[in-house]
Write a sequence for this structure.
C-alpha cells in the first residue's frame, strides 16, 4: 500500500492581465484539476491565463469527500473566481466539467462573466442512490490504486457504505436550484456533450442550451466520447471548439 499525493491547484498567469483572457476551469464531483490538465495546457499555449482549484476533500479518497460539503466546494469555486478577479484580467470565462459546469452556471447567475462553457454537466435533480453508487465505485477504484489488499478493500467499503451520505442530497438540490435560474444567465454559453454519456447528461445539455437566457449560445455533441469528454476520443476537437468559442467573444 502507498499513499497517493494529492493533486495541487493549477495557475498559469499571463504577463499583462488587463490585456488577457483568463479561464477558470472547474473539475467535477470526485475529480481533480488533473482531469483538465490537457485542456489547460492547450489553452495556456494559446495565450489564455488558466486557473483550476481543487475542492475540499477531493483528491484524498472518497471518505474525505463524504466528510466535506457542497457549501465548501461552492466556496472553493467562488474563491477561485475572486482570485482571478483580483488580477484584474480583461476577460474572465469559466469552463466546468460535470459538477464544475453546475458551479460555472451558478457563478454566471451571480457574477459578470465573459462566457461559460459546460462539459457533460447535469442540471436536473439527481437520484441520490445513483450518486451514492458512483461514490462507492470511486472509493473502490481509489483503494485499488492505493494497492490495498482485496480483503482490506472489502472491509473498508463495508464501513464506507455505513457513512452519512446526506451531502449527496445537498448536491442534488444545488443542481436543481441552479437549473431553475438558467434564464437569468446573460453571458455567452457553450454546451458540450459526449453522445456516449448517460441519458441524464444528454437531457441536461439540451435543457441548459434551451433555457439559458444568453443571446449568444451554442451546443455541440461528440459522437465518440462519453462523460470524460476532455480525455476521450474527440478531445482534440473539443479543445479546438472551446478555444474557438473563447476567441470569438
Amino acid at each position: 500500500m502507498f499513499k497517493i499525493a494529492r493533486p495541487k491547484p493549477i495557475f498559469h498567469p499571463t504577463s499583462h492581465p488587463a490585456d488577457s483572457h483568463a479561464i477558470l476551469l472547474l473539475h467535477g464531483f470526485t475529480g481533480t484539476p488533473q482531469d483538465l490538465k490537457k485542456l489547460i495546457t492547450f489553452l495556456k499555449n494559446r495565450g489564455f491565463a488558466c486557473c483550476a482549484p481543487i475542492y475540499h476533500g477531493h483528491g484524498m479518497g472518497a471518505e474525505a469527500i463524504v466528510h466535506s460539503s457542497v457549501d465548501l466546494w461552492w466556496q472553493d469555486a467562488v474563491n477561485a473566481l475572486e482570485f482571478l478577479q483580483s488580477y484584474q484580467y480583461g476577460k474572465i470565462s469559466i469552463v466546468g466539467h460535470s459538477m464544475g459546469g453546475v458551479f460555472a452556471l451558478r457563478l454566471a447567475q451571480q457574477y459578470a462573466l465573459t462566457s461559460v462553457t459546460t462539459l457533460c454537466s447535469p442540471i436536473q435533480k439527481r437520484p441520490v442512490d445513483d450518486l451514492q453508487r458512483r461514490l462507492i465505485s470511486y472509493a473502490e477504484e481509489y483503494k485499488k490504486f492505493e494497492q490495498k489488499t482485496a480483503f482490506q478493500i472489502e472491509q473498508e467499503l463495508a464501513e464506507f457504505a455505513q457513512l452519512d451520505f446526506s451531502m449527496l442530497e445537498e448536491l442534488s438540490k444545488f443542481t436543481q436550484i441552479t437549473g431553475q435560474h438558467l434564464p437569468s444567465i446573460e453571458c455567452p454559453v457553450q454546451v458540450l456533450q459526449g453522445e456516449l454519456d448517460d441519458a441524464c447528461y444528454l437531457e441536461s445539455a439540451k435543457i441548459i442550451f434551451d433555457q439559458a437566457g444568453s443571446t449568444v449560445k451554442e451546443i455541440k455533441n461528440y459522437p465518440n466520447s462519453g462523460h470524460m469528454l476532455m480525455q476521450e476520443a474527440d478531445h482534440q476537437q473539443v479543445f479546438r471548439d472551446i478555444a474557438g468559442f473563447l476567441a470569438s467573444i
